[in-house]
Amino acid sequence: MSRAPRAPKEQVFAEDPDQAVRAMPDLFGHVAAAETLQRAALSGRLPHAWMLAGPPGIGKATLGYRFGRWLLAGGAEGSVPLGSTPLNLDPQHTTFRRIAAGAHADLRALRPNTGEKGGVKLVIRVEDVRDAIRFLAMTPAEGGWRFVLVDGAEMLRPEAANALLKTLEEPPPRAVLVLTTAAPDRLLPTIRSRVRRLDLSPLDAAVLDPLLGRLLPELNATERATLGRIAEGSAGQAVALAEGEGLALQALVDQALGELGDRRNWHRIADAVAAKRDGSGFATFIALLRRAISSAVRQAARGQGAPGWLGERPLAEWSTLWDSLGRLAAETDVLSLDRKQAVLTALLWLSPSRR
């Protein structure tokens, strides 16, 4: 008696975290930086290495990919019509579509990703960099340029950074390297001195709101405005906050700061913050708390007005408290301390009774 054929095993494909970035057709902010890149390419004297620096989540990699696909499509040679925005390439262009699919032979991207043991790899390894260096040294497959994007260059391991430095010192012809970083001071001074740096600023509300409308269509205008405010001009941070219950946690931060000294709701707040077993709620709560404090202190220092709770203590004490909250979060994570108790400790520090 023959057996029934087995059903084929379901294939599970790894999520591609870069796909949405590679496929973004529009330029949100950073017009001046895009114009600088385009001008340099059209001049015929294109620097071989660039650094796009700025806070996390503001579109550094998006701009890097935009530059790469325009360059590989022949933009520097005048093969791409100049559009109303710099580095523009029609989404139907074959180069755009292939890069969006991660299938262009002359573009490679390095970014921290999942490590060999299943954990989060917080570094870019030397093996990956050496592979990218060999890639840059090859003749372009399509006769134009070779392009490498290193996203999160501050996470290069020391030996990886040194390997990259050799390529920066002796760049191959018709090859472009773009580094993105949220912490340029963590890069080797010798690397910083051999790249052309473009500093990107957080997106203002007029630019960020329509972008969040596209990325987070399920939220209403008030929720998007709140996320934009607490994300301080970072679309990536706003999306992360939305996915991590950032609006609810911000409401708890507002309540805690608005009720300084009133202990009746402390345990309810602490329970809500510590509810997620992975600790993400606690990390976000402390980050939002510190962000609220630093923002209020900056407002007061500029004479722009500040929330009433800031007057509960001198500005210098708020700065010290900001540092203490950062250490509390780090110790709680590293030592696996009780998160609810850590929240209660933070609320006690906030209380004016500590003065």
Explain the overall architecture.
- Its EC number is 2.7.7.7.
- Keywords: Nucleotidyltransferase, Transferase.
- It is a single chain.
- This protein has 355 residues and is of the alpha/beta class.
- The chain is 48% helix and 7% strand.
- Strand 2, helix 5 and strand 3 form a beta-alpha-beta unit.
- Helix 9 crosses helix 10 (235-243) and helix 11 (246-258) packs across helix 13.
- The longest helix is centred in the C-terminal third of the chain and has 22 residues, at 280-301.
- The protein is elongated and about 70 Å long.
- 34% of the residues are buried.
Task: Provide a short characterization of the protein structure.
The protein has 355 residues and is of the alpha/beta class. It has helices at 19-22, 31-42, 60-72, 94-100, 126-137, 158-169, 189-192, 205-215, 221-230, 235-243, 246-258, 266-273, 280-301, 315-334, 339-350, and strands at 49-53, 107-110, 146-151, 175-181, 196-199. The protein has two domains: 19-199, Rossmann fold (3-Layer(aba) Sandwich); 244-354.
Fraction of residues in helix: 40-55%
Q: Over all CA atoms, what is the radius of gyration?
A: 24 Å
Overall pLDDT:
90
What fraction of the residues are assigned to beta strands by DSSP?
Answer: 5-15%
In the CATH scheme, the class of the largest domain would be Alpha Beta
- The CATH topology of the largest domain turns out to be Rossmann fold
Protein name: DNA polymerase III subunit delta
GO molecular function: DNA-directed DNA polymerase activity
EC number: 2.7.7.7
Keywords: Nucleotidyltransferase, Transferase
